[in-house]
Every structure is written in C-alpha cells, then in structure tokens.
C-alpha cells in the first residue's frame, strides 16, 4: 500500500492533493499546525486518512512530530503561512516566520521522514500526462 504525507493538507491545494491520494486508496497523513484541525479534516477526507500536528515555523519540532511515521512513498509540502507584508508596513516577525517556514521547515521535513521516501509519476497522478505534481525526495541514510 502507498503511504502519502501532505504537509499542509488541511486546506487549499494540500487538501485537494490529500483527497486525491485518499480517493485512489493511499494511506494518507495530513498535517496542520494543530492536531484538532488535522484530525477534523482527516475525518472529512475519509478512507485511511489521519491527521497530525506539524508546525513548519518551529522546525526544531518537526522530527519529533514525524517520529511515528515509518514509511513514506509520497511527500507533498504545501504548507504556507498566509499573510500580507508590504514595504510600507513591514512586519519583521512575519517575514522571519515566512522565511523559516519556506527555507528551514521545507528542508527539515524531508530530512525528518523515513529513508523510503520516493515518488514516481504514474497514470494515477493528477496530471493526465503522468507528470509528477511534487518533488521526488530521496533522503540519504
């Protein structure tokens, strides 16, 4: 059976991808910043979907959050902090949070998943051409 993790799978594009994986029969793990939100959406998606809390803005907690994940075939990272930060009203704290999520959190996540993490394009991918819709993460032992 295929196991897919969608980091940021509780809303937006991540939720749509998680639903697609669940509809094709994958075991799906979705993440949100809170367990309550992840569990609620996992129940709505159905199948063998479960939720877990992972906060990419706190990268030092990612490995511990993913410690019980034993196998990963597909890893999709769609989490993003939504916010507006303009030059006129620049918010340093929000800018640091966004950079932490996108640089450190996005890097720490595949480093914290099991070494079986891989992905290949196939006819069941959302793109009918078979093109993958996420990156292939292969974490060295």
TrEMBL record:
Similarity remark: Belongs to the short-chain dehydrogenases/reductases (SDR) family.
Species this protein is from: Microtetraspora glauca
Coiled coil: none
Keywords: Oxidoreductase
Signal sequence, start to end: none
Xref: SUPFAM superfamilies: NAD(P)-binding Rossmann-fold domains
Annotated CDD domains: SDR_c
Descriptive protein name: SDR family NAD(P)-dependent oxidoreductase
Low complexity bias: start-end ranges: 109-132
Keyword Oxidoreductase in record: yes
UniProt cross-references to Pfam families, sorted A to Z: adh_short
Region Disordered, annotated ranges: 109-141
Keyword Transcription included in the entry's annotation: no
């Amino acid at each position: 059976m295929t196991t897919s993790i969608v980091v940021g799978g509780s809303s937006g594009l991540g939720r749509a991808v998680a639903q697609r994986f669940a509809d094709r029969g994958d075991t799906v793990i979705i993440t949100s910043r809170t367990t309550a939100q992840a569990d609620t959406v996992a129940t709505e998606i159905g199948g063998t979907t479960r939720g877990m809390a992972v906060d990419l803005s706190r990268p030092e907690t990612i490995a511990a959050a993913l410690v019980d994940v034993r196998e990963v075939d597909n890893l999709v990272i769609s989490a993003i902090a939504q916010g507006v930060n303009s030059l006129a009203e620049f918010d340093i704290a929000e800018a640091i949070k966004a950079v932490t999520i996108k640089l450190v959190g996005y890097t720490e996540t595949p480093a914290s998943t099991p070494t079986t993490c891989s992905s290949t394009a196939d006819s069941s991918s959302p793109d009918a051409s078979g093109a993958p819709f996420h990156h292939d993460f292969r974490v060295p032992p």
